[in-house]
Amino acid sequence: MLRFVLTAAVFSLFALALPAGGGSPAIADDTVFRCGAESVSVGDSRYTVQKICGKPSRSESVAKTSKEKKQKQPKGSTSTSSSGKVQKWYYDRGYGDFVYVLTFEKDVLKKIEKSGRGR
């Protein structure tokens, strides 16, 4: 009986030491991108990102899908401004690290993703 109580106590202490979520990694990779000693996060402007991280390895502009446009624009709207475009910046951190893709909409950082390994 004493062995059972001690085992239960050890497992309880171990369970308390684990982070919430069962030991899975934090979602920080999706909201924060580290550039040297500083970092940028979702919601920062393109200007801020370039000031902190420098120019991306490459960038591209892509139009939103028609489904996304329909959800964002009010009925009857015929806006043709560049606000419907999405810009993706790629930061290649080199061999052994990931390529990070930063997605901007209306000059605001909306998403940070990992994409393959760097060169």
Instruction: Give the low-confidence spans.
Output: 18-29, 76-83
Question: In what order do the strands lie side by side in the largest sheet?
Answer: 3-4-5-6
**SSE-based structural type:** alpha+beta
Which term fits the overall shape?
Answer: globular
**What name does the CATH topology of the domain at 30-64 and 84-119 carry?**
Beta-lactamase Inhibitory Protein, Chain:B, domain 1
Order of helices and strands: HHEEHEHEEE
Average the pLDDT over all residues and give the rounded result: 74
End-to-end Cα distance, whole Å, is 58 Å
Counting DSSP H or I runs of 4 or more residues, the number of helices is: 4
SS strand fraction: 25-35%
What CATH architecture of the domain at 30-64 and 84-119 do you see? 2-Layer Sandwich
Tell me the total number of β-strands.
6
CATH class category of the domain at 30-64 and 84-119: Alpha Beta
Short synopsis of the structure:
By secondary structure, this protein is of the alpha+beta class. The protein is built from four helices and six strands, in the order H-H-E-E-H-E-H-E-E-E.
